[in-house]
Amino acid sequence: MATATTYGARDHARAQEGTRTEAMPVVPAADWPEPPCEAGHLVWAETVAGGNYTHRVLARGTELRLTDLRGDACAHLLLYAADRPWERLNVADTVKVQWNAYLGEGQLLLSDQGRVLATVVADSSGRHDALCGTSTLVRNTRRYGDGTPQSPSPAGRELFKLAAAKNGLGSRDLPPSLSFFQGVEVREDGALDFTGSAGPGGSVTLRTEQDVTVLIANVPHPADPRPDYVSTPLEVLAWRAAPTAPGDPLWDATPEGRRAFLNTAEFLTARGLA
Question: Per the domain annotation, does 126 fall within a domain?
Fold first, then answer.
């Protein structure tokens, strides 16, 4: 089909309607073939290619499931309060307040205001990282020859910049991120050992405790020792559910967690949101 003219280009573009590639958003999300929730509750369905990114604003009480389809995805994650992005994921407080550097089921993802942005409600992978952040342009250029977003080896921070810009944020709004599906362990001497992936099919499910802006970059972990840029597709599904409430075992699991939930509830109640 000729695309040298405007009409030809238009006809070519329209001929693609209804076709799907391996990695792309499904719109509407309800067309996803096997939803993990009640019919009509799915709000986000996407497969993110290796070396790519995605973003979405999710309502409070949404459950977000990330799945490492082939065993070499690495979902680098940032969270922001949707209408006040100065409140954002604070990895240091997430680790420090909960006395735990290892992410997993039952962990809270905390903001710099001492409130809960999201909770980890399920985890079948166990290979995650809250210490190393994501890759940078300088690192990827030195290691792979290029780290720009359009290259074969884009850096996570460069992709985060693109996702941030689409939500009115800039490079100064990018704090350290979390990584899911590629883990590290801390030795007794303080050095880090890369533990890699748990294999294909691992998943982690987050529950949003506020309206949040989600940024995800699917790129190799910066501690991955392999010489090649290896990054495989990431499945992203989100559906309407309910936020954590008093009486949920997660609410009272630890004194620190209970305080963070109370801080969140007080703030939302004052705004008429809970």
Answer: yes
